[in-house]
Amino acid sequence: MATLLTWLGKTDVDNMKQDKNASISAIALRGPVFDKIVILASSWEDDWFDYKDWLKKKLAVSGRPHSDISVIRARIVSPIDYSSITKVMQKKLNEVGEVSDMIYINLTSGTPAMTTISVLLGKGVGNCMFLQSSPHGDIDEVEIPVDFAAEYGRASGSGIYASIANLPKSESAFEKINATSQIMRDVIKKAQRLASSDLPALILGETGTGKEVMANAIHKASPRSGKPFRAVNCGALPESLVDSILFGHVKGAFTGAQRDHAGLFEQANGGTLFLDEVGELPLNIQVKLLRALQQKEITRVGDTAIRDIDVRIIAATHRDLFTMISSGDFREDLFYRLAVGVIHIPPLRERIDDIPDLVESLLNDINQQATTHPQFGCKKISSSAIKFTASYDWPGNIRELWNTLHRAVLWSEQEVLDGNDIKSAILSRSGSNEANAEKNSFEIPGDLSQFIDSIKKSAIESALEKSAGNKSMAARLLGLNNHQTLNNWIKSVNLEP
Questions:
Q1: Which of 132, 146, 235, 428 would you call most buried, defined as having the most Cβ atoms within 10 angstroms of its Cβ?
Q2: What does the pLDDT look like over 17-29, one tens digit per residue?
């Protein structure tokens, strides 16, 4: 199938009203025979139907195919905006290429920007040819005598060493994240790979593990590092304003909307938007977020205009999204759209090797802040204090550790913080204290091997009782491979047959 792809020009519309040919109609009537004609239009909407009807009649009279002609709305910022023109042209070329054996692009209609983009993109399509018409109606097949790929290779080769200095440095972007432990080194490695892509990301982890720090590092190590990074805690957004804060509003959209307001999506355009605690978003906002991710477009509150956006989304949550999906509190389609690149940050209790370096780093930051207050001196930390921090569970993770160190610096009159300073600065948690006390008071009654044998013996007796003496069934209940293993257990604990 042969397809003509063209922009609609003002001359095409004006000549149609006088029943005269212009570029599109001249090519359609005198050029190759087209099975399909796709016309991209951004202006003169009132004339689209008339133009399409007029062109159909012209083609019908000449005996050419005329049943598949469409005028497509092109959502562009302006007729000279290269970015939006590129998006529209690329999308339409991909769609047309899937159903066409040959694509012809009209270079005569539309603005110079539209023609330039048509040439650049069309040269990358193997089955694409270019056509143009003269004022006298002559049709020419245009040969572009430039190999853009080769030219780009030569140009980029000469400047590659200069340009590489401006690329985001992945290592430096993550250097503020302490990663001595193997588990955190693996996390950083995954995050660095994710940063080089433009995929949505979902960061999982308990409260206080540093999800925003990780999101910021991913942004700084990405090709979007020179563009805005915006962060918002979705759980802290007032339900009545969340729509406006994320997507913006127009003047008069609601009481108090005294002027147009660009939401976070527009503020982060070209860069990254970090949605912390995304699980707290209401379902109606989840629908709009899904549309923004899929269609890359938003609509301000109170507006009808659709705005194109180019934003990378990094979301984070400490909640179990699978449970929320089951309960209907989180959309499954949104989850799978966000969870393309998933990073799980382990809690502090699982990365004990990181704690000494983390304590030193946090204390340095606190000391720098303390220099602005003459009544507080800089503090050092003893090995006993670091040993205590490594032994504590830190249920609030890095955030709790930071706050605890801050309190220790505030209250301690010593120059060097010891273990007691840190311990006394921890806020009491009655539940966890009881659990810790219970854990610390646990004792094994008697000899360890005897204790284990008594547990094993009790389990064997229960399994045999449940299976009515059937050893094969009892072995399965105990998770053993066969009844021979069970017999060995029975002998080891001196259990009577």
A1: 132
A2: 999 999 999 999 9
User: What stretch of H or E contains 182?
Assistant: helix 182-195
Half-sphere exposure of 21 (CA within 13 A, CB side): 20
Note whether 2-142 and 363-440 share their fold.
Answer: no
Q: 352 is written with which tokens?
A: 């004990």
Contact assessment for residue 354 and residue 184, using Cβ atoms and an 8 Å cutoff: yes
Q: Which residue has the tokens 């432990």?
A: 181
Beta bridge partners, 73, equal 41
**Cβ atoms within 10 A of the Cβ of 60, count?**
12
CA 248 to chain centre: 20
Measured CA to CA, the distance from residue 240 to residue 173 in angstroms comes to 36
The CATH fold of domain 184-346: Rossmann fold (3.40.50)
CA atoms of 203 and 215, how far apart (whole Å): 8
CATH of domain 363-440: 1.10.8.60
> To 10 degrees, what angle do helices 48-61 and 23-30 make?
30
- Count CB neighbours of 352 within 10 A: 15
Please give the CATH architecture assigned to the domain spanning 2-142: 3-Layer(aba) Sandwich (3.40)
The pLDDT tens digits of the residues spanning 340-365 come to 899 999 999 999 999 999 998 898 88
Strands 36-41 and 201-204: unpaired
SS3 of 241, please? coil
Q: Report CA 290 to chain centroid distance, whole Å.
A: 12
Confidence at residue 435, expressed as pLDDT on a 0 to 100 scale: 47
**Residue entry with tokens 């527009």:** 266
Token pair for 250: 């127009």
Residues of the chain with pLDDT under 70: 146-172, 373-376, 428-451, 453, 496-497
Parse the chain into domains and list their residue ranges. Answer: 2-142, 184-346, 363-440, 448-492
| DSSP track, 299-338 | --BT----EE---EEEEEESS-HHHHHHHTSS-HHHHHHH
